[in-house]
Amino acid sequence: MTPSMNTSQTDPKGPSMTTDRCTAAHSEDPTPCAGPHDAVTILDAGGTTVTGCEHHGARLLASLDGARVEPGTVLGAATRVFAAADGIHPFPWLVDAPRTTPGQLSAAANRAAEQDRLAAEATNYREDIDPDLFPPELFTSDGR
Ligand SMILES: [Zn+2]
Known about the structure:
It is built from three helices and three strands, in the order ββαβαα. It is an alpha+beta fold. The protein has a three-stranded antiparallel β-sheet with strand order 2-1-3, covered by helices on one side. Helix 1 packs across helix 2. The radius of gyration is 21 Å and the shape is elongated. Bound molecules: zinc ion (ZN). The site of zinc ion has 9 residues, from helix 1.
């Protein structure tokens, strides 16, 4: 999911195909910038800051453990970058990288996996309960 990342600003015929890219763009990331190069500021866990466009800001935020985004020159950009980064796998330009462990998956994918794990655990737990001790009507989900 890359909302607001595939706008006309990423048109390969546009001015963003120049070698002039924002400082948030990773050297191995071939994608062009989208919008102003100081739309947001990304801070890593150590406090180092870089400014970037919304596109590369989101990709960098998704790739750095403990990083955060702060507003730059574009109103609302930090919120959009925060939301977009949630669905982006770390280092998304590594297209052949494995995507199986939590550190290789997006925050959204990790939350979904945790929900699946908890649902399976709950199912297993219910199957272990002695039905004579806890009648099934106690386990309704309709709030009664
Ligand atoms: Zn950029």
